[in-house]
User: Which sequence fits this backbone?
């Protein structure tokens, strides 16, 4: 999510008993989306919702992109990881998702992009995109080759 998409969330943007986050307005048309909230965050979201009305800001009136930047950097320092900001996390998300084999269209949709071209050019590391393409080609080629024609491995030679 973009920093403003996080900071500007209202209580009413949480749906399905805390399992879905709705982004009703965004920088682009593709940015208007529904995102699944990971199960590990359900109880934290429930705490944020307590005692608030639907039009209250989810993270409080002080939440803005600068507040979020400070919070993300603080958590990075506590976790003893490289210190990044919210925008850097978008790139990390894109890169890790591509490396894990998530399709480009799905990664682009999660980031609110209309096409994977924007994601590939500005967020996901080039080597991750190239590696994912290579793995997909290898998998497609491997599927159609009978076992006896594949390059043998050390295990195949040992079994013979």
Assistant:
């Amino acid at each position: 999510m973009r920093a403003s998409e996080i900071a500007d969330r209202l209580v009413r943007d949480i749906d399905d008993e805390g399992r879905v986050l709705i982004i009703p307005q965004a920088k682009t048309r593709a940015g208007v989306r529904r995102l699944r909230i990971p199960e590990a965050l359900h109880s934290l979201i429930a705490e944020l919702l307590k005692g608030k009305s639907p039009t209250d800001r989810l993270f409080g009136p002080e939440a803005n992109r600068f507040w979020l930047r400070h919070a993300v950097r603080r958590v990075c320092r506590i976790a003893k990881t490289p210190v990044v900001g919210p925008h850097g996390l978008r790139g990390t998300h894109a890169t890790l998702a591509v490396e894990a084999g998530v399709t480009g269209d799905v990664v682009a949709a999660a980031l609110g992009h209309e096409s994977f071209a924007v994601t590939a050019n500005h967020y996901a590391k080039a080597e991750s995109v190239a590696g994912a393409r290579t793995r997909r080609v290898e998998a497609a080629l491997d599927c159609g080759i009978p076992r006896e024609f594949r390059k043998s491995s050390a295990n195949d030679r040992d079994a013979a």
